[in-house]
Amino acid sequence: MSYFSNSAWWWPYLFILVAGFAATDIWRFLGVYFGGKLSEDSDLLVLVRTMATALVAAVIGNLIVFPGGALAHTSLVLRIAAAGLGFVAYLLSGKRMVVGIIVAELLLLAGLYLDF
Amino acid sequence: MSPLVSDTPMSRSVWFLRGVRAAFSLPGLILVSSFVGFAALAKDAGVTMVQAAFMTGTVWALPSMVVLVGAIVSGVALPAALFAVTLSAIRLMPMVMALVPEMRAEKTRQWVLYLLAHFVAVTSWVLAMERLKHIPRDMRTTFYAGLGGTLVASNIMVVTAVYAVADALPSTISAALLMLTPMYFLTSLWGSARERVGHVAMVLGLALGPVFHVLLPQFDLLAAGMVGGTVAYGWHLWRRKAGAA
């Protein structure tokens, strides 16, 4: 039942349709349906948003601590330092995403270049 | 623009093209760079080029796509992947709920809104919430169709292009590409949090993700989301109570 468990050509597409398309568009459709009916500040929505935020943040944490591919060959300290300082640069620049992303990338590349 | 001509096909295509043009902006460029990162991630996970392009068109929400690829890498079964992605996508509902009243005109048909809702993801939403108020009400769905359609189509092309060249890239560049996705989320998630509790949930999730990855590898994202989200919500209730007292 996992993505690679069935060798039929259509299986990955079915997997994406069910676990990806249906799982996201159900919320978009409900959003249209409820549009304007439910208060954005209702307590239930606050809980729903905090859970969703924590889940996506967990994805970020895993991508930095347990990355795949070429990033897996870099040191954990370098990745955390690059991401952390990039984030600080983002905050200091008045929340400019470009600044945060560029600082993190330059630090990562500098670290790799210096063989850190 | 005179209201007398605002409903002619001519002005409709003008507003569609203005939507297309709105996609070529700084947020649009940052989105492209994070799709470059996503393509590197998906390729690394063993997802083929056509599957990744299909995923981009059908799912169209980068956090959910990264969760889906994470589930594919961990080898979890379909129901567990469905559950994790569903939880990651909940945020789309309040976003769409906020956008619909902005976009709807008196004559707008319901099916048009359901169709356009598929384009809702962080970037198109931020751009739309910023620009829609300057657009004649009965042209807003047209404008958004141009904006959302362009973002989806161009990023499908970006994903395909990255697959084509990825093998030729030096490993330093591949590592830098893989770093784009976490940095994009780190900054966009922080910036889009509506209230302080969103920042608390984010910090908790960042720490709990890797912890549960070790403790509960099959359910790391769900566990981090539920525990981190509930604790943050508890903090929110506690703070409100303390503030009221």
Question: Concise description?
Answer:
The complex is a heterodimer of chains A (116) and B (245). Chain A is mainly alpha-helical.
Describe this structure in words.
With 116 residues, chain A is mostly helical. Chain A has four helices and no strands. In chain A, 42% of the residues are buried. Chain B is mostly helical and 245 residues long. Chain B is 79% helix and 0% strand. The model of chain B has no long low-confidence stretch (mean pLDDT 89). At the A-B interface, α1, α2, α3 and α4 of A face α2, α3, α4, α5 and α6 of B.
**What proportion of the residues of chain B is helical, as a percent range?**
over 70%
Q: Determine Rg of chain A (CA atoms, Å).
A: 20 Å
Counting DSSP E segments of at least 2 residues, the number of strands of chain B comes to: 0
Structural class of chain A: mainly alpha
Strand content of chain B: under 5%
Give the H and E element order of chain B: HHHHHHHHHHHH
Output the number of helix runs of chain B.
Answer: 12
| Percent of residues in beta strands of chain A | under 5%
How many helical elements of chain A? Answer: 4
Low-pLDDT ranges of chain A = none
Question: Can you lay out the helices and strands and say which pair or pack?
Answer:
The complex is a heterodimer of chains A (116) and B (245).
Chain A: H1 11-34, H2 43-65, H3 76-92, H4 97-113
Helix pairs in contact in A: 3-4
Chain B: H1 9-23, H2 26-45, H3 49-59, H4 62-74, H5 78-89, H6 92-103, H7 110-117, H8 122-131, H9 140-165, H10 171-192, H11 196-215, H12 220-244
Helix pairs in contact in B: 1-9, 2-4, 2-9, 2-10, 3-9, 4-5, 6-8, 11-12
Key traits:
heterodimer; A: 116 residues; mainly alpha; 4 helices; flat; B: 245 residues; 12 helices
